[in-house]
Design goal:
Blueprint (H helix, E strand, L loop, with lengths): L6 E3 H8 L7 E6 L2 E6 L10 E3 L4 E5 L28 H13 L6 E10 L2 E18 L2 E10 L3 E4 L2 E4 L9 H10 L13 E5 L15 E5 H11 L1
Parallel strand pairs: 3-6
Antiparallel strand pairs: 1-7, 2-3, 4-5, 5-8, 6-7, 7-8, 9-10, 11-12
Bound molecules: zinc ion.
Zinc ion (ZN) binds next to β12 and α4.
């Protein structure tokens, strides 16, 4: 199980999910969880954004696939239903959010992974799908999904505690700045394995998620050592 902020490879991610992840949106991938892949880099195809200081992710739905001689995906409405009448991924997530809002179902649990550069992914945490709507963007309809970050629960000596140090999403621009500055290595030992985006001053002690000055890269060992010192 990954921790929020863990740096992983595409293979790690696929291994953890038990499938080759190809699509950005994966409703109920294996039973109870859904999986969303996001990419906020410049030139990324969808307008995802982080709100409320890192608690809320607004994820944009997906366009029609690109077909030879077909319409340009960015020129037509994002579809809820496939030509054959089945639901698209937009449709599955949208209906789950509507059912939740009507009180018919529990909120859908969604794991979110983010690609920060080629081959390098970050686990952004486990979210609840709490809302969805359609809005007009460049004269066409797009879906928007509102995902709320769950607090992580860790078991220390059998007691469940909320790991509030890590319950904020670090914006992509900050992740990229830190990755570049720390050269993709642990700042203590230069390890390139099992890396994690760490808040230097924990969020719970007033440290910000929004500035690179408060974020560093640590390997699993040094992350654990630091955590033990703080607690
Ligand atoms: Zn280290």
């Amino acid at each position: 199980m990954f921790k929020q902020g863990d740096v992983i490879s595409y293979l790690d991610m696929c291994r953890a999910e038990g499938v080759n992840l190809q699509r950005g949106m994966n409703f109920r991938l294996r039973g109870s969880f859904s999986v969303i892949l996001m990419s906020l880099r410049q030139g990324a195809p969808y307008a995802d954004r982080i709100e409320e200081n890192g608690r809320i992710l607004i994820y944009e739905g997906h366009d029609i696939p690109l077909f030879k001689d077909g319409p340009k995906p960015k020129m037509v409405d994002q579809p809820e239903i496939n030509p054959g009448g089945t639901l698209t991924q937009n449709g599955f997530f949208y209906r789950a959010a509507v059912s939740y809002k009507l009180g018919e179902k529990e909120a859908e649990f969604v794991k979110v992974y983010e690609k920060i550069r080629s081959g390098i992914w970050v686990y952004n945490g486990l979210f609840r799908l709490v809302d969805a709507w359609q809005e007009t963007s460049n004269a066409r309809k797009v879906f928007k999904f509102k995902l709320e970050l769950l607090d992580e629960f860790t078991s220390i000596n059998g007691i469940e505690t909320t790991d509030i140090d890590h319950n904020r999403i670090i914006p992509t621009s900050v992740k990229l700045q830190v990755w570049k500055r720390d050269k993709g290595k642990c700042v203590r030992c230069a390890s390139q394995n099992n890396l994690h985006f760490d808040h230097i001053i924990p969020y719970s002690k007033g440290g910000s998620s929004l500035v690179a000055d408060n974020i560093q890269i640590l390997c699993a060992r040094h992350n654990l050592e630091k955590r033990d010192r703080i607690e």
